Amino acid sequence: MSEEPEREVARWGDGDDRLGHEMAELVGRLSAEDDMDRETRGRLLGRFARLLAASARRAGAAGVGRGRWLTDTFMEIAPHVPVRDLETLSRHHDGLRGEALADSLVRAAQRATTGVGAAGGALAAIQFTAPPLLLTAPAQILAETVVVGTIEVKLIAELHEVYGVQVPGSGTARGMVFLQLWAGQRGFDPLQPGSVTAALGVAAKAGLRKRLLRTFGRHFTTLGPFLTGAVAGGALNNAATRRLAEKVRDDLRGHHIEELRRPPSIEGGG
């Protein structure tokens, strides 16, 4: 039998990062495009919710209540979910390219966030015991918030691959940029690279926390009778992911067109 989440968190705090790895692995599986049955998705989401609950209790009311813990947890997990390059994306989507590939990516992300909302809405609430503030919410709502946010961050990153808009930096640094793009609901502007940075300052973290709490609030409204919560959670996630994709794609289309219109550079002179 595995250790209780609280004991795992205690070991993690003493330098053992197994909990962090397991949380990232769970979110990675929940954000994958593979068709997953509702029972499996609910089981994985329930496990993730229990780990989050234990971590939040350790963080205490001060960090959790203001959203700092939720933001730090999201920043730790989301940038480490694998992002596919253009060739891999095309291969996974029957050889599609361009707008058709982007359409297929968005539909897959919508299915994933819909599935998380439906599974979360149907879960029995795993209640936090104390302290109050965000801890009065069922852990499942925080779990849905992190997983749905991660799916959407991954979608943004892969849409940049589709439209050929390159975000500079290493994998982790690029991940932090995509977090900021998710918070701002926009695409990367290569003409204004300083608008987002690889190191999240106070303002960037505040923007990310604000977006997370809005997502949390959306999921919190789906609490209700068994089927009502499931249907509402899935529908709201589906619509929110579609709106996000539309905004990002509009931005990326504009940058992509400008790049195509730019005349080729002449090397060598004369």
Report on the architecture of this protein.
With 270 residues, the chain is mainly α. Helices cover 69% and strands 0% of the residues. It contains 10 helices and no strands. It has helices spanning 5-13, 18-30, 38-65, 68-77, 86-92, 98-122, 139-163, 171-184, 202-220, 226-261. Helix 2 (18-30) packs across helix 3 (38-65). The model is unreliable at 124-133 and 259-270 (pLDDT under 50).
Set down the secondary structure blueprint.
Layout: H1 5-13, H2 18-30, H3 38-65, H4 68-77, H5 86-92, H6 98-122, H7 139-163, H8 171-184, H9 202-220, H10 226-261
Estimate the mean pLDDT confidence: 79
Q: Could you estimate the helical fraction of the residues in percent?
A: 55-70%
Strand element count: 0
Share in β-strands: under 5%
Order of helices and strands: HHHHHHHHHH
Overall radius of gyration: 19 Å
Terminal CA distance reads 75 Å
